[in-house]
Each structure stands twice: as structure tokens, then as C-alpha cells.
Predict the structure.
Amino acid sequence: MKKSKRKSVSRSAIMIMTFIIAFGITAPVQSFAETNGASDAPMVQPPVISAQNAIVIEQSTGKVLYEKNSRQKAYPASTTKIVTALLAIESGSLDRIVRVAGAAQGVEGSSIYLAAGERIPLRDLVYGLMLRSGNDAAVAISRFVDPSTEEFVQRMNERVREMGAMDTNYVNPNGLFDENHYTTTYDMAIIAREAMKNPEFREIVGAKSWVANRGEGKYNHFYNKNKVVFEYPGGTGIKIGYTKRSGRTLVASAERDGMELICVVMNAPDWFNDSYKLMDHVFDSFQMNKIFEASKILKAIPVKNGDKGHVFVGLGSSILMPARKGEILKLEVVYRLPVSVQPPVRRWQEAGSIELYGNGEYLCSYPLYYLEDIDRSMSASYE
């Protein structure tokens, strides 16, 4: 961290206001530090793990809480299917019926034993993809969402670029090994975080089992291969992967005491234990801290020709941030708000946004809302 010219802070909060102008928007920058507990708490060393690449992030902010070779190239194996499933969900209703393309029958590796021409709900395909890791389900989904698997893979790459996963490249929808099919644990954490924001995706990957509607004599009972949802306290998902050349990969998620983690391990012989040890370490070492309260007044914006000279703005929900237990939490807060507004203004109408930065790096942003109604003044109405 670069040294700052600001005064050092112990257990109090400080505010230093400056202003920047960008595209006609006034953005006051607020810096503060606060702590919950003693700042001299001993730092617990992270556990020894078998994984060559690993990362743990906090879900709501994306803040990295642990990493090991997280930007190093690795092979995702079936964790690729996180993107395949997300695109299937984003394509429309999962109740649509899919006619299985011939290319999906007999795909090597894990399978839900699809037959060419079989008609199956898209929902069942996605459950089969994520719980049983069906490589054939991935191909069937790709041919349903797009005219060809190649076009679907292009869509996959475009979608992860939108998320910010810039060191990932896919060449197939299921993760079968290819030298040009790669990612990093950092990218996979970004991808998993985005996917877990989708309620349908979250429900699917958190399921312990699913009964498909494929008809009698078909493979209908899907049990989740991801032991995280069975074994780990607070486990919520999300996907395992393995090929001989990729090694064992696991993207895991869990929630405790209001903090949800995404843990990714790759090339990890002891994949589940690695993940459990890392998540235990982070849960033991970090906690969520409330930075701002919901509905609390944060700023006032001048109102021109209003029945009141200003309008208060605040958050629709509280902002929580992870920090090491006993550590002084230092953040920079940037407000993106108009210089002034014209009435009418309505409560809970979006006013702008608030951005959080740590060590000069962007963390996350939240919308700001007007906290009151402001109408046009009577005198202004007669002008």
C-alpha cells in the first residue's frame, strides 16, 4: 500500500472531502477508516494446501481474501459448465422443451445418457449439467441456445469478458481438455460470483438432488456430485471438475454469519479438503463490517425551484464489507451525484451511485436514492 499524507487513524473515523468533476457530475470523495476490535490481533497463517492455484473472495463485494497463483493459467475442466448453465438460464424460460441434437448423443465423459431426438425440458438439462456434470447436456444446451456449438462457445467467451474475466478462453461448452481451453482461479471466482447472483442458478447448484421428467426407463434421478452441499457447514454450491490432464478443480461456495465466500482450487489433488481448509481459515479470520446503514442520510443535493432547498439521498440497503478481524478498515468512497436537481423528486427514485475503493482499487458500487418527495414551489409555479 502506498503511504498516504493523511493523518494516521486509530479507532476513530475521519472524513476528508475533495471534489472531482466528470461529465458534469460532481463526485465528492470521502475517505475514512474504522475498526471493530483491537488492531493488534495476531494474523493466522493460511493452511497448507495441495492446490497449485487457489483463491477465496467475498461474494457481495468480490474482495480477494486469499490467493495462491490466482492469475496463473490453469485448465477448468467441468467448472466450464458454470457459464454454460448461466447462458441457458439467461436465454429464457427453463420450462421450454429441447429436442436433443444428434451431436449430443454419446459425448465422451460424464453423461446423463441423452438420445438424439429426445425431448426434454431445458430445466432437466441444466440440472443434469450441474449436478451430474453431463457433457452431453452441455452440447444439447449449446445447440438449443445457438444454431451451433461454435456460436455458443463464442457467446460464452463474450459473456465472461463482460464479467471481467480477461484471461479465460473456451473452445467447448463442457470443459473437455484442450490446450486452448483455459482460465485462472481469479477469473473463475469472478465468473462464479456473477453466476451466483442469479436466483435460478443458485437454486440449481445448491440442490442435493433432482428428479427429471424424462419418462420411464430413462436416467431421471440426479444426485449432486459436489460434496460441498452435503459436507461443509453453510455450503451453498457450486461445481466440480476433473479430467486427467486438467487435474481436479473445484468451485465452492458457503455462507456463515452473513458472509458468503467463493473458493476456487485448481490442479488440486485434495480438492475438497483444500477448499474446506481455505474457507474455514477465511471464516475464522474475517468478518463483515457495516459501512453504511440503509436509509441513513448520506448527502444533500440542492433543489432548484423546489418547495425545499435540498433533497437528502441515501442507500436502499446497508453496505457491508469484509475485513480481517481486529484490522482497521480503510476505504475511499466516491459519490456520483448531480450538482443540483429540478422538482418533482420522488422518494426511492434513483439519484446516483456510491463507489467503494480499497488501496486505490475499485471494489464495488451501489445505487443511491432520494429519501424524500420534493415538489415544485408555489412561487415557482406562478413565474
Observations:
- The first strand starts at residue 16 and ends at 22.
- The chain is about 25% helix and 30% strand.
- The two ends are 56 Å apart (CA to CA).
- The CA atoms of residues 91 and 145 lie 7 Å apart.
